[in-house]
Amino acid sequence: MRKFIIKRLLISIVILFFVGMIAYLLMRCMPADYVEQMARELSMRPGSKSFDEWKDQLYQAYGMNQNIIAGYFTWLSNAVVGNFGDAWSRPGQTVIQVFNSVIWYSFALGAISFILQIVIAIPLGIVAAKKQYSKTDYVVSFVALLGISLPTFFLATLLKWIFSVKLGWLDLFGIVGRNYQQLSTFGKIMDMGAHMILPVITLTVVSIGSLMRYTRTNMLEVLNSDFIRTARAKGLSEKRVINYHAFRNTLIPVVTILGGSLPSLFAGAQITETLFQIPGIGYTSYEAIIAGDIPFVMFYIVFLAVLTLLGTLIADILYAVVDPRVRIQ
After folding, report:
1. Residue 168 main-chain phi, psi, to 5 deg
2. What is the pTM of this model?
């Protein structure tokens, strides 16, 4: 296992190298107006350098005054030591500072929805498989298809219309209310929690459908296996057959989805965060793209690549944890 992990990490480094190169190529394809706009804004500050000086400095800092290969290695040499430059959309802050200030909102939102997704989808998928073609199965299948089919923006808009516009229970957007600073510590926590309700519901509903259907399908396949019939023939209780023998084997393919979902705890839900204006990494990246914040966009693309590679590695490791028969030689 140790050799396997080291090998995968080395392969991941190679993949990241080429992902970074593609991201840099995309950055070089962006209009030069963004760089000139940033240089113009910096030159207008009191006591600042001239526009041409700032323009030359920005081009040199990101290797845009060189050819693509040389420019990429210039950016890469800074990136490997954690220097991704200044965030143009947040004056006075570096990319890493902006990342540290927004990532925890995305993590809280993703972690809560991820836990709810597991708690809701997997048990309902197992129940639907146990009671195939019953009313329970039809209801679970309907809910799953509804979650898969509903677009995020439509569900978010519907929830805001019901709970914010019609009922007035929750705010339309934002992470805190207008009187947040006047609240006690407990009141601030409750106020922030209230603003997270609708985004969490949105993320959970659109996520549980595929996991629910996947769990149901795999559970049905396992329940029709020979070893399940053998376990029942030996006189084992139905509870033990389902919860021990069948459930453990059902988890093997489900781990693939869960392993791929773990990186989303940090990746941010760009559409959901944007619709509810939650200041997480997803909404911040959207603002950066609109504003032409080249350094932050570059960082975000590489960050997503790291999370994706990490998710696949975690899924491979979990295979051996869930099923002792799986051993990597």
Report:
1. 70, 25
2. 0.80
